[in-house]
Amino acid sequence: MARVMVIVLCFSLAPVAVTSQRCEIKKELESVIADCRRMNFYAVPSEQLPSDTTELLLDHNNIQELSFSAFANLTSIVRLSLRFNSLSHLSKDSLIHLPNLENLDVSHNPIWVSESSLPRGVFSQNTLLKTLILPEGEIPASAIAGLDNLEMLQVAFSPTGASTLPEVISTLPSLKILNLSYGRIQNLNSTMFDLIRNSSIEVLMFINSQITYVEPNLFKDFVNLRTINLACNEVEGSAFADVMQAFSVLGSTPLDTLILDAVNKEYPVMLRREDFCTDVRRVKRLSIKSNNIIGAYVNIIPCLRMEVVSMGYFNTPYFMSPKLDFDELRPLVANIPIHTLDASYMFSTGQAFGERYCNSKNPLFNDDYFPPSWESLPIVQSNITFSGDTNSSAKRMIPPNIKYVDFNHFGMHPTGERYIFDTINLNNSLTVCNASYTQLVDKFPVIGNLWNLQIVDVSHSGLRAITKEASESFKDYVNLRHFILSHNQLFESGSDFEDTFAYLAELVSIDLSYNGITFMHNRVFAKNGNLEEILLNHNSLDHTTTLLLSSNTNLEYVDLSHNKFTHLSDSMMKELDHLTNQVKLDISHNPFVCNCDAINFIKWVNETEVFIVGHHLLECSYHNQTKQILHFPVEALEEECQKPDFDLMLKRILLGIFLPTVFIITSMSIAYKLRWHIRWNYYSLIRYYRKKSLLYQGDYTEDQYDAYMVFNQEEDTPFVFQVLRPALEGEPAPTASLYLNGRNDFPGMAKSENVVDGMEKCGRVILLVTPEFSQDEMCEFALHMALVKGINSVIILLKNWPDFASMSNTLRALLRPNSGVPCLEWPDDNSGQKLVLAELTEAIGAQRDGLQLNEIS
Predict the structure, then answer these.
(1) Which of 115, 146, 301, 666 is most buried, by CB atoms within 10 Å?
(2) Homologous superfamily, domain 702-855
(3) What are the UniProt keywords, alphabetically (predicted)?
(4) Which one-letter DSSP state was computed for residue 746?
């Protein structure tokens, strides 16, 4: 018996919410909102909800049924959302306790809307209902009968029999919006609408309803119909043209808004006169996005009587037939009444439109189809939007009455930039220019004649410089009040902006944030006396920055946050204190330090009358990385700063010894390594001045020789003068001229000078290596001078091998086989000697002929 009672008890508790989660209760003005979404409820958690709840959100739960008592203590509910649950029907008493209900959403539930799932009387106690959103099915005629306050009915209309809309719709006096989107309709014909043409419906929506056919002249003689949305259908045939035929004859229909986005996906579309020179001309707002439009015929222009046109997303209107030049097109365009043209993402290739509209699961009508300023902006009367991503270089013209130009997200081809800004130059009425996100220019374009321009936005545009020419053109910006230059790379210009904004006398606000600017001239804003707001946040300015602000008497806000200030300079603090207005200053998120240099700054933060945003939260860091709120007495810090810093003194002493020592050692090391080059240059310099003097006296000659001979004059002179000289210089056919010490030296010069002088007159240097050579200091000197002259000029003539121990390291290196220096060994036999002399002659001749030694076979 006990087991049976437990089982019965479990079944009786089955519909109760089995979860420990609590709904979030929020109060906003007179509303009490209970947010119970995604909490795995199996029933309405009425026991935890306040009785004065006005909005109950139960989306994404597992509620299968609404019991009679579900809302018994919640009679104040005005809005009830049950989207994404498991409801299969609504019974007559499901909503009986909700007399104040105005908005009900039960979409995305497994309810097939019909007379059985929503029986007659299900809304009998909900007479105040204004918005009713249902899932897929038919229109429940008996259920909605008598809902005289119903303003919007949404159901994914999928008729199982005749597709005629029930006559009960005409009996609902307040019904304005009938949204039948995301159903399965296929054919739109006159039979469907015969019973509702005299209804109060103003908005009719069929978004993504799998419509393949639209009857011509279908929307004729609707008494109140003002808006039709047929977006995201796949009409067969010539698609766009077929859909336009449905509106050729409107009769008494007061249609003013027509949305035909994405009704054509396959066929390239040219906008034709026969599509627009019909009753469609009555329409004031037309949206034809994403229709594969590639161009237009010129004769369509007189038929464009709309005020608002939206035609971006995948449309690529490059062509016009017949082709007109700029001057021929101007008078035609000038008379078009369009004051707002949305061409956003005109040449884009992504899926943004389809994801946002065609695949939407909540296709409620809203104004996102058109720019938010479709009627008028507060400061302008007409506007135009050219946004998107394009490489088109086609000429674009701005009608003369346009006052608002929007180029955002416009990736302009370099040649297209000229066309855009040339037309802007012609438009003196332009008031607002938005060129944000354009990647249009590396430098600010030079634009003149814009006397009425008040707002310029070039943020996020890859701007790297404002040239002097562009600054000069600002003379014409006599009324510019707001200049937005944020999120660019102006730090790359290297400019300090001294005179950049000098001509903008009426400027009220300037935004230079997010530019990585590292320094600014102190007079950058000195001539902008009307400035009220300066935004320099998110840059790299530091304590060396001082802005002269005494002339900016209207200044109200300065933002220096997110920079690299360790403190503010004394001059900057004085400038801020001298302002007559109560200025707001934001210096948050800067790396302030608590050291001796910051004492005046810390005092100023605590004493100034300038309103510092969040001053009680500002922090500074000590050298040990500990942080301190800036609002603290500085006496202890001042006392610490007055004490002698022995550690610092010791560091300075050690640094004073260490740096000179390192410098001396380094200098000596470099001098030792380059000692032979230094001596060569020294003797060359002496030779230069001596030669200049001797040439003036006529005692010096500029004779040139083929080779300089380096040898030991005590032991090797006979060999040089009796063997080598006759063999190379002998008559009747001398093969080379030699510079020989003792014969060709200039009298009065030191030996070292003569060595350098002789080598500079010769192409080659021959080293006659003997045992005496390796012990001769003068030969060693000449050897190093020869290497300074160039190792490619050296030839070794080895007469007798010297003792290895007596050779210098340099000579040993040259005698190695892989040294790259040619080495000729003098033999004892006559035939070998003749061969060596021939090779020596050939090597000397190769230098004379401009060849390298490695080119000699």
Answers:
(1) 301
(2) Toll/interleukin-1 receptor homology (TIR) domain (3.40.50.10140)
(3) Glycoprotein, Leucine-rich repeat, Membrane, Receptor, Repeat, Signal, Transmembrane, Transmembrane helix
(4) P
What is the C-alpha to C-alpha distance for residues 758 and 187, in angstroms, rounded to an integer? 107
Distance from C-alpha of 177 to C-alpha of 155, rounded to nearest angstrom: 11
CA dist 164 and 197 (Å) reads 12
Residue 131: beta bridge partners? 103, 152
| Side chain identity at residue 177, one-letter code | I
For residues 771-789, average pLDDT:
89
On the question of a common fold for 441-643 and 702-855, the answer reads no
At CB < 8 A and 24+ separation, what contacts does 132-136 make?
A: 132/104, 133/104, 133/105, 133/106, 133/107, 134/106, 134/107, 135/106, 135/107, 135/108, 135/109, 135/110, 135/111, 136/112, 136/182, 136/183
CATH 3.80.10.10 is the classification of domain 1-148: yes
Give the 3-state secondary structure of 520-535: CCCCCCCCCCCCCEEE
Beta bridge partners of 297: 321
**Domain parsing of the chain, residue ranges:** 1-148, 151-375, 441-643, 702-855
| DSSP character at residue 414 | H
3-class secondary-structure state, position 515:
coil
Cβ atoms < 10 Å from Cβ of 661: 10
Over the stretch 97-156, which tens digit does the pLDDT of each residue have? 999 999 999 999 999 999 899 999 999 999 999 999 999 999 999 999 999 999 999 999
Cα–Cα distance measured from residue 472 to residue 427, given in angstroms and rounded to the nearest whole number: 19
Indicate the residue type of 411. Answer: G
The answer regarding whether domain 441-643 maps to CATH 3.80.10.10 reads: yes
Rounded CA separation 443/727 (Å): 74
**Which tens digit of pLDDT belongs to each residue from 553-612?**
899 999 999 999 999 999 999 999 888 677 899 999 999 999 888 999 999 998 898 999
Q: In angstroms, rounded to a whole number, what is the distance separating the alpha carbons of residues 69 and 66?
A: 8
Q: What is the pLDDT of residues 620-636, one digit of tens each?
A: 998 878 888 887 778 88
Q: 404-406 and 432-434: which strand pairing?
A: parallel
Cβ atoms of 289 and 311 closer than 8 Å: yes
The angle formed by the CA atoms of residues 561, 453 and 400, to the nearest 5 degrees, is 145
pLDDT, greater one: 356 or 398: 356
Reduce the DSSP state of residue 186 to 3 states and report it: coil
Supply the CATH classification number for the domain 151-375. 3.80.10.10
